[in-house]
Amino acid sequence: MLYKDRHEAGKALARHLEELRGDPNLIVLGIPRGGVVVAFEVARALEAPLDIYITRKIGVPHNPELAIGAVASDGTVFVEHDIAARMGASPEYIEAETQAQQDEIQRRLNLYRRGRPGPELADRTIVLVDDGVATGATVMVALRSLRRHNPRKLVLAVPVAPPDTIAKLRREADQVICPMTPRLFWAVSGFYQIFGQTQDDEVVRLLELAAEEQGEQKEAPDKA
Questions:
Q1: Which of 156, 166, 52 lies closest to 107, judged by CA?
Q2: Contact between 23 and 121 (Cβ < 8 Å)
Q3: pLDDT for the residue 83
Q4: DSSP string of the chain?
Q5: pLDDT at 21
Q6: pLDDT at position 103, please?
């Protein structure tokens, strides 16, 4: 089975989350960039507000795509120290890379939110969405970071991930939704027909569109 694209994956996820529709405390958080596209469809289907939660992977020297950890926008850092040591990542390298990713997180927050404050997350039903998970490092740190905000319920929803990664993430979330957990897993992109890179302007556009639709939904009862 392949998803056509991130939009289709988001609609598929939403069908598994239908029980949350109508929860007044519900909020959907997408992990930029690609996760926001999936999250947009989830939020639209559940008629819930959409926002972002930024985490960035800490890659190994000479291979930034191979994660040894991750950092979240609130400063939460998760590092697999055993793996880091085997990959030749020194403490000094990890510290410098962590700072670089924190700087990138701040750049994206400024770009995506345009000065808007982040949402209040305490006592909310949070659905954290990404477009897929491989090692789980960035999602792991996001879940641990979000837990510090004392949500009422913390749900992870991803279209595809390997079963061992999902097993680890179930220990961090109250509920995990993942329709596809193939044992032969090579890369998230391998389970999409179309998996181009999502650009910053697409993230901004979807956040603005979601906010407009939320505003229309709130006004509709008054017009009735």
A1: 52
A2: no
A3: 82
A4: --BSSHHHHHHHHHHHTGGGTT-TTEEEEE-TTHHHHHHHHHHHHHT--EEE--EEEEEETTEEEEEEEEEETTS-EEE-HHHHHHTT--HHHHHHHHHHHHHHHHHHHHHHHTTPPPPP-TT-EEEEE-S--SS-HHHHHHHHHHHTT--SEEEEE-SB--HHHHHHHTTTSSEEE-SB--SS---GGGGBS--PPPPHHHHHHHHHHHHHHHHHHHHHHHH-
A5: 96
A6: 94
pLDDT in tens, 31-80: 999 999 999 999 999 999 999 999 898 988 887 777 888 899 888 888 88
pTM of this prediction exceeds 0.85: yes
Q: Is the pLDDT of residue 224 over 50?
A: no
Paired with 69 in beta bridges are 58, 79
Q: CB within 8 A of 88, min separation 6: which ones? A: 60, 61
In 10 A of CB 30, how many CB atoms?
30
> Phi/psi at 201 (nearest 5 deg)?
-65, -25
What are 61's two structure tokens? 């020297």
Enumerate domains of the chain plus CATH numbers: 6-54+122-223 (3.40.50.2020)
pLDDT digits (tens, 9 = 90+) for 150-159: 999 999 999 9
